[in-house]
Design goal:
This protein is mainly β and 99 residues long. Helix content is 9%, strand content 61%. It has 1 helix and 7 strands; from the N terminus they run E-E-E-E-E-E-E-H. The chain has a 7-stranded antiparallel sheet. A hairpin with a 2-residue loop joins strand 1 and strand 2.
Length: 99
Amino acid sequence: MSQPVIKSSNATVQHGVARADGTLVLTQDSVQFTPFNQAFGLGPYTLMRSSISEVDNTRAKGAGILPLSSDAIKITLNSGQAYEFILANPAQWLDALKH
C-alpha cells in the first residue's frame, strides 16, 4: 500500500546544464521525482527521508552556471550526493521537508 501524499507539485530537476520537468512528491518516508520524459535519464528518483542530511534554498541556474531565480531547493543526502529541484513555493517545501 502506498503512503499518503503530504505535498506534490510540478518541478524541474537540474543536474549541471541538464534539466527535466516532472512531478515531485513528498510522503512520510520519501521524496520522489518522476520526469515527464524518462528518456533524458534524469529520474525517476526516490530519496528516502531518513537519508537526507540537509535541505536548503538554492538558485536555479541557466546553462548550469548563471543564477536565474531563487525558486529552487537543494536536497543533500548523507552520502554527499545532492539533488536540485526548481519549483513554486520553495519555502513551503523546505518547511515540509524539515518536519
